[in-house]
Amino acid sequence: MNHSTLTTTVFSGVPRTLLLTTRARVDEHYRLHSILHDPMIAEWWPALTWDPVLDGLYQPLSQLGWALRAHIFDEIVQRHLAVQPQAVVVELGAGLSTRYYRVGQQSHYWLELDLPEVIHLRQQFETESDRYRLIPRSVVDWSWLDEVPDGPPEQLLILAEGLLMYLEPDEVQTFITQLKQRFAGATLVFDAVGGLTRGRTAKQLADLEAPLKWFINHERDLTAMGLTVVEARSLIQEMCRYRDRIGGFRWVPWLSKLPPLRNSSLLIESRV
Question: pLDDT 10s digit of each residue in the chain, 272 long?
């Protein structure tokens, strides 16, 4: 397929933000000593249209954060596949994720789920198979649960990268409850925001009609929602490992343990 002939949609609302994380991976791919290589998204990128309204949200630090978040999720997937050779992986709110091509082709079955307009775009770039499927559905349309093949729950890995913070708190709780009822013992990996993210970033996203709705104060909040937290990592603290890329924020490491910074973005691995 000649990707240069594709006509891409200018999205609105939350789907609009997929260009931010997509561009972050493209830029990271071309960096010397990059955190992750993503040749597939680099191939897709020329056919996509950047939305200049997103310029205010796309900065070097945010680019690093999104690329690093993707890399950490990749590592979790690789670790899961190493111990679960029959693993089923479900990416919710997948956007233009190319994780399957980076680290997922050893999985037994892989599902990508997003809104119909996003899946329509993806279908112009890639082809489904008997082990790889694209599902055009909202995460709160619980019928997607029926698309997950039967099997031991410990083989199931559910990823929700950059998704749950856009749901209402009661929708997040229902999501967790649904998973516990259907897939108790499965692994759920997601990111959650709080702290400083409630401020300027939340306002910028609200101005784009993609408001953040669900915040947590600490990973302890998740226990009351029915999750068992296996590991919680602060994205800010992880970013501080790349001192050559955080510029004038080199002073952040000694502040990154303070709750407003630490909890601004948490990467959570949990059991349902």
Answer: 455 445 456 799 999 999 999 999 999 999 999 999 999 999 999 999 999 999 999 999 999 999 999 999 999 999 999 999 899 999 999 999 999 999 999 999 999 999 999 999 999 999 999 999 999 999 999 999 999 999 999 999 999 999 999 999 999 999 999 999 999 999 999 999 998 899 989 999 999 999 999 999 999 999 999 999 999 999 998 998 898 888 766 656 656 677 788 899 999 999 99
Which amino acid is present at 104? G
Round to the nearest angstrom and report the end-to-end CA distance of the chain. 40
Q: Mind spelling out the 3-state secondary structure of 179-233?
A: HHHHHCCCEEEEEEECHHHHCHHHHHHHHCCCCCCCECCCCHHHHCCCCEEEEEE
Cβ neighbors of 61 (< 8 A, separation 6 or more) are 239, 246, 247, 249
- How many CA atoms lie within 13 Å of 164's alpha carbon, on the beta-carbon side? 28
| Nearest-5° Cα angle at 57, 53 to 63 | 125
Q: Are 271 and 186 in contact (CB under 8 A)?
A: yes
Whole-model pTM: value is: 0.95
Alpha-carbon distance 150 to 158, whole Å?
14
- Contact (CB, 8 A) for 73 and 99: yes
